[in-house]
Amino acid sequence: MAKPPLSMKPTGWFQVAWSAEIGVGDVHKMKYFDTEMVAWRAESGELTVMNAYCEHLGAHLGYGGTVVGEVLQCPFHGWQWSAEGRNVCIPYQDRPNRGRRMRTYPVVERNESVYIWHDIDRREPYFDVPDVFAAFGDGSGVDGYYPQQRLYREHLELHPQYVLENGVDFAHFKYVHNTPIVPIFTRHDFGEPVSFVDFTITFEGDDGQRIEDVNSGVEAINGGLGIAVTKSWGMIDNRTISAITPVDEFTSDVRFMVYIGRTPHKDQARAAAKADEFGREVIRQFEQDIEIWRHQRYSDPPALATDEYEGFTAIRQWAKQFYPDGIGGSAADVYAATQKG
Ligand code: FES
Ligand SMILES: [Fe+2]
User: Fold this and answer.
1) Which residues contact 296 (CB under 8 A, 6 or more apart)?
2) Is residue 341 part of a domain?
3) Residue nearest (by alpha carbon) to ligand 1 atom 3
4) Where do the coiled-coil regions begin and end (predicted)?
5) Which residues 6+ apart lie within 8 Å of 291 measured at CB?
6) Helix (H), strand (E), coil (C) string for 124-186
7) Which ligand has the shortest distance to the CA of 77?
8) Model confidence pLDDT, tens digit, residues 106-165
9) Ligand 1 contacts CB of residue 79 (under 6 A)
10) How far apart are CA 204 and CA 184, in angstroms?
11) Over the stretch 274-308, which tens digit does the pLDDT of each residue have?
12) pTM (global) more than 0.90
């Protein structure tokens, strides 16, 4: 594929697993941002994500590492590492090594997902992970929804920014998702690391209707480049989370989650079946986007229609803040930065 001229090491929150994949005592292996990592859950339930290689002699803690109470024990010589990445025990010496630390990552578990904070300069998190319910401030909660439905696609050749740009790309809805008419945007707010995009859209009716008369839409909140949550209104109540996490310099893992709202219904089994069917349809639409993204080449500067200027300029300018050295513009910038090492 065309390697995107955008850093695959952006700053922000990124999903690395679902919470249920890592039970108490589990040590889970993964690779993100070109780095081998482990996630392990202590007896107390606390989840830690750290780099995988033991600071002693470099054993990979994902192969035979064991959770002992609140620490992770290396399979090679039994050194124990705490949730803060500190060495707390060398079994054949009376004191631990206080100097060396395993690199750990800030972790948040929310909406059944595990998110880590990634920043190559190791700054602390400076914005929060949007919650697919609470972020909309409407009093909604998971109890009002059917169980989360999921899509997981590994190692796709795409960049997280492609997925976010989809949110300002009004013209694609008609062609990729077969909406009868082109949506219009009612809000673009790219002032902060958490940004907001609202638009009016319908999936019903024919192309004879006017978008001004449509009474349904979507509100989207982007928590940096890694996570977007959406809420629909005026149509079947659904919430979505899309989470794109770079694996290496070429590929990303894509996770997409859908919640369908519960409605009072006489026949609960039938209602649940319909919700399941609708959720699968939402996922199918996201898969239509994926087919474009995974074969796409990042176009910079793009040829834009007049009405596309504002949205694309705003989101691309906003995205730059998450790239090391503010890169995210031209391929030349990226090349220069890689030469710096
Ligand atoms: S390599 Fe981990 S304890 Fe020696
Ligand atoms: Fe789309």
Assistant:
1) 158, 162
2) no
3) 77
4) none
5) none
6) CCCCCCCCCCHHHCCCCCHHHECCCEEEEEEEECCCHHHHHHHHHCCCHHHHHCCCCCCCEEE
7) 1
8) 999 999 999 999 999 999 999 999 999 999 999 999 999 999 999 999 999 999 999 999
9) yes
10) 15
11) 999 999 999 999 999 999 999 999 999 999 999 99
12) yes
CB of residue 61 inside a 6 A radius of ligand 1? no
Q: Is the CB of 89 under 6 A from ligand 1?
A: no
**CA-closest residue to ligand 1 atom 4:** 77
Q: Kind and range of the H or E element at 282?
A: helix 268-293
**Does the beta carbon of 59 sit less than 6 angstroms from any atom of ligand 1?**
yes
What confidence tens digit (pLDDT) does each residue in 310-329 have? 999 999 999 999 999 766 54
Amino acid, single-letter form, for residue 237: D
Q: 69 C-alpha vs ligand 2 centroid, how far in Å?
A: 45
CATH classification at residue 43:
2.102.10.10
- CATH code (residue 274): 3.90.380.10
21-76 confidence digits (pLDDT tens): 999 999 999 999 999 999 999 999 999 999 999 999 999 999 999 999 999 999 99
Note down the domain range covering 246: 134-334
Q: How many CB atoms lie within 10 A of CB 120?
A: 13
pLDDT exceeds cutoff 80 at 273: yes
Choosing from 64, 86, 118, the residue where a domain stops is 118
